[in-house]
Amino acid sequence: MKFSRQTTLRSQATVTGVGVHSGLPVSLTVGPASVDAGFIFVRTGLDDADREVPAVAGSVIATDLATVLGDREGPLVSTAEHVLAALRGMGVDNAVIEIDGPEVPIMDGSASAFVAAIDQAGIVTQSAARRYIQVLKPVQVVIGDSFGELRPHAAGFRAEVEIDFANPVIGRQNFALDLNPESFRREVSRARTFGCMNDVARLWSAGFALGASFENSVVFDETRLLNTEGLRFRDECARHKVLDVVGDLALAGLPLLGAYRSVRGGHKLNHAVLTALLADRSAWRVVEPESARRSRGHAEAGAGMVGGMIAPAYGPDVS
Ligand SMILES: [Zn+2]
Predict the structure, then answer these.
(1) Is the pTM of this model over 0.70?
(2) pLDDT class of 26 with cuts at 50, 70, 90
(3) Reading across the β-sheet that carries 51-54, which strands appear in turn?
(4) What's the CA-to-centroid distance between 103 and ligand 1, angstroms?
(5) CA of 53 to the centre of ligand 1 (A)
């Protein structure tokens, strides 16, 4: 078996915006990280020292309205899912994500701004082979009327999402994506956060969604879309759910080799399925070639670099 090598960002790139729930201005910088680092948030701008929180399932402390990461002392980074989706979706393995406020900026409600930041920073290969978590048997979770499943899949990662909203303007939608950097960019990265006007009003009165606006959310009432500019895709809501899946499952810590299916799902379900998979040691294994283990610990620059910019391959190349 031949494997792709790990990647990181060549340089830093910064995006600034507001948090969708806090409404607070925030600046986020993505940048390079060492081999095997995965995605690491660094929360700056605190009274004390900067605090690091690895983007892994064990750091999740809330999933009600967004995926919130933190540590024993409390929440550090809210709404982590869209920037994580961009990194995983674009084939980045290792990155530091510095953030000077409590919430990732919502930007236009999609992953576009983060994809643009990754494009600006550039992607470079590193010395070590990419490792994957391969799903070996199906793991299923039911929460109320939501259903989620990870199952073995022949090649790479596939996400299949079905939504079924009582709101007739959203209604039933399906979307499936075989993930690679091109499909991610083209099919889901531009799909925006969405909600129903009743829910937004309820969130506002509870002190949430303070930064939500038509500039960063697709909003429906019971009869129509309220955004005057219209939808980016007919099934933009289902595509956004796939974007959220890619971001939430990035918390596996490694790219997944498997297929994920969700019906009426959301952040809570995505996290529950990932946690159920990781808890069952017979349901997955880390796929790592011998050569990667031998080269571990070597300097990452130099020999491992192939011409700078690459188009990362997604699954392992079988040869
Ligand atoms: Zn989302």
Answers:
(1) yes
(2) very high
(3) 13-18, 25-31, 95-99, 39-43, 51-54
(4) 13
(5) 20
